Amino acid sequence: MTEPTGLDDHVIAFLSEGTRTAKLGYLASDGRPLVAPVWFVVDGGDLVFNTGRDTAKGRALARDPRVVICVDDERPPFSFVQVQGTAATSEDPDELIAVATRIGGRYMGADRAEEFGRRNGVPGELIVRVTPTKVVKAFNLAD
């Protein structure tokens, strides 16, 4: 099923479950499509992750903010959510630490959240906020 924009409650619950890693699709400077795994959180209807300003992802998003993110459940009965959207970046230090800490807590556990927040919430890192323009979802494909 395709949703024109936005994340419904079922999609948010799926995206927020456990430690599923998102696959971020973006374009290289020569137009080649690239995919990279990212740790993320859902925040206010957006998908949010951080990356280095000078990484391939950071440079690509500065050139072209159009992205696609796919998150799947590889276990039967199999499900996925694809979010097409526009990425906006920020280097706000307070928000960077807050987002990096939330992401660290999700993927590394609450006891290591602050450690990862300090490690990834530093100058040169970006907050990337993906606002959905289209959502494609398919749950329980093998049922």
TrEMBL record:
<dbReference type="InterPro" id="IPR012349">
    <property type="entry name" value="Split_barrel_FMN-bd"/>
</dbReference>
<keyword id="KW-0560">Oxidoreductase</keyword>
<dbReference type="Pfam" id="PF01243">
    <property type="entry name" value="PNPOx_N"/>
</dbReference>
<dbReference type="InterPro" id="IPR019920">
    <property type="entry name" value="F420-binding_dom_put"/>
</dbReference>
<protein>
    <submittedName>
        <fullName>Pyridoxamine 5'-phosphate oxidase</fullName>
    </submittedName>
</protein>
<dbReference type="GO" id="GO:0016627">
    <property type="term" value="F:oxidoreductase activity, acting on the CH-CH group of donors"/>
</dbReference>
<feature type="domain" description="Pyridoxamine 5'-phosphate oxidase N-terminal">
    <location>
        <begin position="21"/>
        <end position="135"/>
    </location>
</feature>
<dbReference type="GO" id="GO:0005829">
    <property type="term" value="C:cytosol"/>
</dbReference>
<dbReference type="GO" id="GO:0070967">
    <property type="term" value="F:coenzyme F420 binding"/>
</dbReference>
<dbReference type="InterPro" id="IPR011576">
    <property type="entry name" value="Pyridox_Oxase_N"/>
</dbReference>
<dbReference type="InterPro" id="IPR052019">
    <property type="entry name" value="F420H2_bilvrd_red/Heme_oxyg"/>
</dbReference>
